[in-house]
Amino acid sequence: xxxxxxSRDEDDVLADINIIPLVDIVLxxxxxxxxxxxxxxxxxxxxLPRARSASLTQEERVIVSITREGLYYFDRFPVASEQLExxxxxxxxxxxxxSVYVRADAxxxxxxxxxxxxxxxxxxxxxxxxxxxxxxxxxKP
Length: 141
Hints:
alpha/beta, 33% helix, Nucleotidyltransferase, domain 5
């Protein structure tokens, strides 16, 4: 008996899984997450001064940012300069075993930084560091 070739009818079910569209979607999502992840880690925008001895460390810490407008941020929580003393007094018991890092904009008057350091020291917080950018030689035109 001769063998007869049948063509697939439209009623036949295709049992193969096509994973190419799935791979395309996963790759697009991966690229999106890779591009947006660094943006989610942004902090308060200040221009740090440069220092040759700048280094990075990982530990439990409190970061205090001072913007060029003179606003204080304790780990992204804004604090007015009038409330600075009260805020430090309330947070001091939990900050005594942590390091406090100050991120002051290069345009912030030195007096603002000293006011912050003085208030921290009054409440027993002595582990204080000043954050800077790594030093790079500036190009002359």
